[in-house]
Structure formats: C-alpha cells, structure tokens
Amino acid sequence: MAESLPSLAFLGAGSMGGAILQGVVASGIAVDGGITATNRTAAKSESLTDLEGVTAIALEDQPDGNTEAAASARIILVGVKPAMVADLLREIAPVLREDAIVVSLAAGISLASFAEVLGSDVSVIRSMPNTPATVGKAVTGIAANSAASEDEVAVVRRLFELVGSVVEVPEEKIDALGTISGSGPAYVFLLIEELTKAAIGKGFGEADARLIVEQTFIGATALLDVSGENPAELRRRVTSPKGTTERAIAVLQDAHLDEVFAKATDAALARSHELAAGA
C-alpha cells in the first residue's frame, strides 16, 4: 500500500463522493497537496469541515470553487449527478493539470462522453463504488480509457483500495457491475427489513426483532468472510435433512429468487442506460 496519495479534488462530495472522501480520511493515509471538496451549499460543505486535511468549498459562496479545486489536484473525482457532468467538465477542462487523472463516480456516463469534452488525451477512469466505502468495505469496479497509463490506473486502484476491494473490468461491464455491487447494499437492507417484519409478526418487539435479524446477517457474512467457504456450502451446513431450515429454504426456492434477482438487476441496468441517454 502506498505511503501517500497525490492531491485529491472531490467535485460534488455528496452521498457517494462523501463516502469515498470519509473513507480516505479514516484510513489515515497522507495526501500530498491535500484534499479539496466542493458542494453546492454551505450546509453540505460545513459537514466536511471537521475532516482532517480537507478544504471544503461551498459553491454558493465561491462560484469558481470547482475550477479552483480541479486546478490544484492530480486526481479529480467527479461526483455530481449524471445530468450535471457535461457542464462540470466544460467548466474544469481549461484548468486541468497536464498530469491530471479524472475519475468518474457518475453512473451511466461513458468514457467517450468524457473524451468529447476533455479530449482523448486526458486520463479518465470510470468507477463504480458502493456506500460501504464509509466503513472500508466497498466494492469498486474501475475501467480506464486508453490515455490512462498502468501507473495511473494503479494510483486510482490504490485510492479505492483504501475503502475496500477493487475489480478492474472493461468499460462495457461497469454498468452491469453497478447493478450487483453498486445497488447491492439496498438489496441486502431490503432483505433485512422484510425478515425483521417476519420476526415482529412472530411476536417479537421491534428492538429484539432488529437485533436478532441484523446480527444474524452480520454474523453470517462475517462467517463467510473468515471461512473462505462457498456460500452454498455454508448454507448446506445450516440446512439439516428433514429439518426446519430445509422446509424454509424450499419455500424461498419455490419463489424463484434466481429469476427475481435476474429481473431486478436487469431493471437496474435498463435504468442505467436511460440515465446515460439523459432520460
């Protein structure tokens, strides 16, 4: 792991940009040249002022904040909403350093779209992280354009490894990866919500129901992590022949969860394509 990272600018330190930012700060790594983060409002920027080594800029107070932040940084993370990306790129293009690496956090915006504004000679890397970055447990997919060197990809990989695991994929796989790991935490939280409702339905109070269900999920994933076993094998070990778990699993399998998850991720992928088209 690198002892330090080059200077960073988070343009739009909202939910995802903020998650990465907080994860980097929490890791304790030195950032040569510091970290600058922009947000539209003073209220949002104020929430970042307590983060060590971070200069927070409110665009409502400092309209040229994005260009100032971009001009000073080696790695520029674009964290604004997809519909705002093109305007932001036009704003910062004239001030980018010669060695700048632009990293996109925006779902659905292609490397070609970045090249249209910045030119094909600027190093651009698309990323698809997820919100567990805030606790150092993210999965981030990255895909680089042809201008990005191996060393530049390695620096960005190092950045995201501070907040979890990294998978390098060809660009055509980035949107599909987003439907799995990007949206995936929401699927897990939905399962926890529904199992908690089932526990309440069995007569448990809400506090006990939450404790039982949430710790079961936390414990199961910790066991999966530590054991290194295939989840199907761990499931088999819990599922005694002719036992209670076997009966429950049969009901879940009859619900065709494989088809449900395929349809859900297909729907997410379709929406990603709509976002890319500006819909």
UniProtKB/TrEMBL annotation:
Predominant place of localization: cytoplasm
Enzymatic reactions: L-proline + NAD(+) = (S)-1-pyrroline-5-carboxylate + NADH + 2 H(+); L-proline + NADP(+) = (S)-1-pyrroline-5-carboxylate + NADPH + 2 H(+)
Gene3D superfamilies: NAD(P)-binding Rossmann-like Domain, ProC C-terminal domain-like
Gene Ontology MF term list: pyrroline-5-carboxylate reductase activity
Similarity annotation: Belongs to the pyrroline-5-carboxylate reductase family.
Stated role: Catalyzes the reduction of 1-pyrroline-5-carboxylate (PCA) to L-proline.
HAMAP family to which the protein is assigned, alphabetical: P5C_reductase
Name of the protein in its database record: Pyrroline-5-carboxylate reductase
Organism: Microbacterium profundi
Primary gene name: proC
